[in-house]
Amino acid sequence: MTVMPATTLPLAIFDIGGPEVLLIMLVALLLFGSQRLPDLARSLGKSIREFKKATSGLEEELRRAMEAPPPSPPPRPPPVPPAVAQPSPATPPAAAPVAPPPPADGHSDA
Hints:
Blueprint: H1 9-13, H2 18-67
């Protein structure tokens, strides 16, 4: 079993060697031109830097949240004993059932 040097390990993931990298660079040079290629590389570097900054900020926030003690629950009120079922003086007594009105034509069924 052969061990790859650490410098070629990232390129070995995509199975890209030296000739393939040169071909990709040549195609990029032909597509974008020599004037625009440095600007593209610069903007790519800036975007990668911003992405790393955002992910490290998120990691730090998660780490801080995990290290902080959990908030204590609010205190519970004391239990209230069950009340004896007594009508309160504020509630009116139940009304008696009301008979339906007689029919409008004056005839009754009874």
